[in-house]
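If you are new to this repository, start here. Below is one unmodified record pulled from the training split, so you can see the exact layout before writing a loader.
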Amino acid sequence: MRKKQVLHQRARRLRREQTPAEAKLWLRLRRRQFAGFKFRRQFPVKGYIADFCCPDKKLIVELDGGQHTEQQQYDMNRTSDLQSWGYRVVRFWNSEISENIDGVMEAVFSLLNEPSPALACGSRRPLPGQGEGIKRRPIRLESGSGRVHKK
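And here is the target side for that same chain:
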């Protein structure tokens, strides 16, 4: 079987076996009910599967559970790859979905309404490296986790 077929089968399986946090967020994002933006869940992007993706705005929303504390380097590499293809990636802990879904939705809405550097210039060039280009939102550090999230 080809790699693309395997990736699509895995995405279908992940959609069927979604976590409670994914189900809760999907209820708010699906069917263009979130400010008219089209989101896809468990969406294949360049060899990866994004939890949620708004292709028109090139925004990827990732939900992280406890397993992500052991795979931080993989997540960083994956985010870097996706950014090099013009995607913006924002990550939230599963607990943020259950404890502060409205805050998560506000953060996603803000990102959807910011101009995407890749879309604004109309090119497929990679985004600038950290410290260059667009100004980043303030970040907060999850206490004791070493994880950084957009505020």
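Two things worth knowing about this chain: The longest strand covers residues 48-54. The chain has six helices and six strands.
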